[in-house]
Amino acid sequence: MTEPAFSRLTTLWTSPGPRVPVTAPAPRGTGFDRVGRMVFWPLSLMLIVHRILVLSVNGSVTDDFSTVYYALRRFHDGVPIYNEVYHHVDPHYLYSPGATLVLSPLGLLTDFDSARMWFICLNAAAIVAALGVLTRMFGYALSSAVFPGAVFFAYLTEAVRNTLVFSNINGILLLALAGYLYCLIHERRWAAGILIGLAILVKPIFAPLLFLPFVLANWRTVLTGLALPVIANAVAWPLVPGAGDYVTRTMPYLREVRDYANSSLPGIATYYGMPWWQEKFWFVFFAAVVAVGVIVLLRWRYTDPLLWMTTTSALLLAGVFLLSSLGQMYYSMLLFPLLFTVLLRRSVMHSPVAWVAVYCFLSADVWFSDEWLDLGRAAHYLKPTVGWALIVLTISVAAVVWWWQERDGRAALPTEPPGEGDGNVGTASTTHSEPANGGRP
C-alpha cells in the first residue's frame, strides 16, 4: 500500500530519519571517537585563539561594546545614560535600567581595552560552556567527540565570529538559554526561572520562551521569570540617572523598524520598499506558521520533552527574529540547541532543507558579486531572512507530518536515543522515553 500523497510531497522537508533498531551503546574509546577528539580539539582551539586574538583585537566598524561600556561608566559617574542621538546609525545603548544595574560591574573597570578583552574572553568561554551544557543535555560526555565537534562548528559561524568581533553579550545569553533548557529538562524550576528572568531582563526577545514552563503548569519558573525583570527594574529605577528617559526616548525607538543592519521581515520590507499589503501578508503567513508549529509540537511535550523543548524554543526564537522590529544575523547563535537534535532519532534537522536554512542564517560567506551586483547584494542581505523563514517552515511542516503519520499509525519511531557513540553517558534515555514528572502519555 503506497503512502498518501501528502507524506510523499513533504518527505524532503520532514524525513524523521532512518528507522533503525535500537542498539546497545558503543564501547568507549572506539576509533571514531578517538579520531574525532584528535581532529576537533586542535582545530577548535586554533579557531578560538584566532577569533579572540586576531579578529576581536582587530575589531570592526561595528562596535557594540563601546556603547555599553561608556553608558555603564556614566551610570557610575551619576550622569544620565539614555542620551543617545537615535537618528545616527551608530550602535545605541538600549538596555533597561534593571539590565544596567546587573551589568554595572563591567563599568568598574577603568581601562577600556582591558575591559573589552575581558568581556570578549568571557563571552568566548560562555559559548564553549553553553555547548558543553548542550552536549551533556543530549546525553553525551564532554570527553566524547561531540563536544569539540560542536565547538569547531560554532566557531566557524558568523554568529560566534561577530559576537566576539562586535564584543556583545550574546555568548553569555547563549549560556543562559542552554542552562534554562537544561534546568527545565531536569526539573530545576527555580534555577530555570532565574536564568530566563535574567535573559529577559537583558533582551526581552527571550520572553516567548516562558511558554515552555507555562504549558507544563510549571508556575515557579513562570513566576520567577516574570518577577525577576520587574523587581530588577524597580530596584534600579531610583539608582539609574535619567531612568525615565528609557520610557520616553528609548522604548519608542525600540518599536521603530530601521532600514539598516536589520534582517527581520519588517526590516527587509522597509529597506526594499515592499508594498504595505505584501508585508502584512507575509507577516500574517509566517506568524500563522509559527503558531501551527508550536501548537502541533505540544503533542510531544510529555513523551519527548527534550525534542519538544529544543524544537519549540527554536521555533519561537526564529519567529521573533523573523517578525520583530529588529533581527540581526548573529542572533542565530540562539538556535544552536536545535542543531543538537540531529543526534536524536526524530528531528527536524534530519531534513536537507533545514541545513540549507542553517547555512543561510549561520554562514559567514559574503555573497557580494562583482559580476552580478544587484543579485549578489540581494542574496547577501536576504540570506538570514530566508534562513529564518525556511527553518520556521521546516519545523512546522515536520511537526504536522509527524502528527499526520502518527494519526495514520505509521510513525511508530522508537523514542529512545540513537545508537550512542563513544562517551555517551546514557542520560538522555530517560529523557526521551519517559514522561516528564507529573506528565502523562
**Uncertain regions spanning at least 5 consecutive residues:** 5-28, 412-441
Number of domains: 2
The amount of beta strand, in percent, is: under 5%
Main sheet attributes: strand count, strand direction, barrel closure: none
Query: Looking at the structure, what is the overall shape?
Result: globular
Structural class: mainly alpha
- Give the rounded overall mean pLDDT: 87
Total helical elements? 20
Can you tell me about this structure?
The protein is mainly α and 441 residues long. The protein contains 20 helices and no strands.
Question: How are the elements arranged and paired?
Answer:
Elements: H1 5-9, H2 11-14, H3 31-58, H4 64-77, H5 97-103, H6 112-137, H7 146-156, H8 158-166, H9 170-185, H10 189-202, H11 211-215, H12 219-236, H13 244-255, H14 265-272, H15 276-297, H16 305-323, H17 336-340, H18 352-362, H19 373-407, H20 428-433
Helix pairs in contact: 3-6, 3-7, 3-8, 5-12, 6-7, 6-8, 6-9, 9-10, 10-12, 15-16, 15-19, 16-19, 18-19
Give a quick summary of the entry.
The protein contains 20 helices and no strands.
Quickly list its features.
single chain; 441 residues; mainly alpha; 2 domains; 20 helices; globular; disordered C terminus
